[in-house]
Write a structure and sequence with these properties.
It comes from Marivirga lumbricoides. Pfam families: FBPase (PF00316), FBPase_C (PF18913). It is found in: Cytoplasm. Its main location: cytoplasm. The protein is α+β, with helices and mostly antiparallel strands. It contains eight helices and 15 strands. It folds into two domains: about 190 residues, Fructose-1,6-Bisphosphatase, subunit A, domain 1 (Fructose-1,6-Bisphosphatase, Chain A, domain 1); about 120 residues, D-Maltodextrin-Binding Protein, domain 2 (3-Layer(aba) Sandwich), CATH 3.40.190. The longest helix is centred in the N-terminal third of the chain and has 22 residues. The model has no long low-confidence stretch (mean pLDDT about 95). The structure holds 2,5-anhydro-1,6-di-O-phosphono-D-glucitol (AHG) and manganese (II) ion (MN) (3 copies).
Amino acid sequence: MQNRIATPVGITLDRFIKKKQNDFAFATGELSQLLRDIALAGKIIHREVNRAGLLNIGGAYGTENIQGEEQQKLDVIANIRFIRALRNGGEVCAIVSEEDDEILDMKNPDGRYIVAMDPLDGSSNIDVNVSIGTIFSIFRRTSPVGGPVSEEDVLQKGSEQVAAGYLLYGSSTMMVYTTGRGVNGFTYDPSLGEFFLSHSNIRIPEDGKIYSINEGGYEGFEPHVVKYIENCKKQRFTARYIGSLVADFHRNLLKGGIYIYPSTDKTPNGKLRLNYECNALAMICEQAGGMATDGKMRILDIQPESLHQRVPFYVGSTCMVEEVMKGLS
Ligand code: AHG
Ligand code: MN
Ligand code: MN
Ligand code: MN
């Protein structure tokens, strides 16, 4: 009997969203529609990413973002695609994006949701064909529907997120998200144009042996980080650092591990941005049974003070995050 590997066709993302929506008694379907709009934009970016080398859309765009980073063409393209998909979807009243200095008003005054996004994470890896991603956080607006968007709308604590997720453009394209009832992963089948449930109810191992940190910053690390890394080496742990947060995070989520972007002498608040990188991954990690802190407090409890605020970031298996924090007490 030929040993055929059956390719079971799982539930599509659309059907899963619909099913989960029915679990929420008062769901109006708006959040479901917003998640579909994000998945649509993800399919478009999947196509752009996979053709970047052929369409001359690799390389630098020639401008800098507010972070002082040289924008890559795909940073700008991904930003435009997500803004367009979310504006046309009609559910979003404002967006905070890594690639835009100010709050983006979607001119949808009836939109009930705010999206904070990193449209393309891991830009330094675009031209060398290494996995990259998109990160998104979804909040309900706090100001009255129909009125102007306020700064309070977009500076909410991570604990106020109604949903969070990421897309990973890797050996396959995946969408992983949570609405506060566990974490589920969907794999994109380009031949069918659909995401299919492939990782149901993801749980991160409580402990792990993989640590992700850019050791190039070693000379500028704080003592507790140096001590932790030395301890990882003594235990012959595995060092894995891709330079794309989404890819490093996803591997550690599935296998167990810790990702650290610490405060250094050159980057006292670390590099990663609270509003559109850390909050989303912190919610996903906690929903999967892990932990996310800035070294002192829970990421989701931090009150943002500005749109592009950076925080030190320790995220992953609970035992590993607790271990590195011990060095601070
Ligand atoms: P982005 O490409 O969205 O600016 O984010 C890059 C981040 C993150 O993805 C990655 O882990 C980290 O920057 C790499 O920074 P270093 O090159 O300083 O290690
Ligand atoms: Mn960037
Ligand atoms: Mn990023
Ligand atoms: Mn980015």
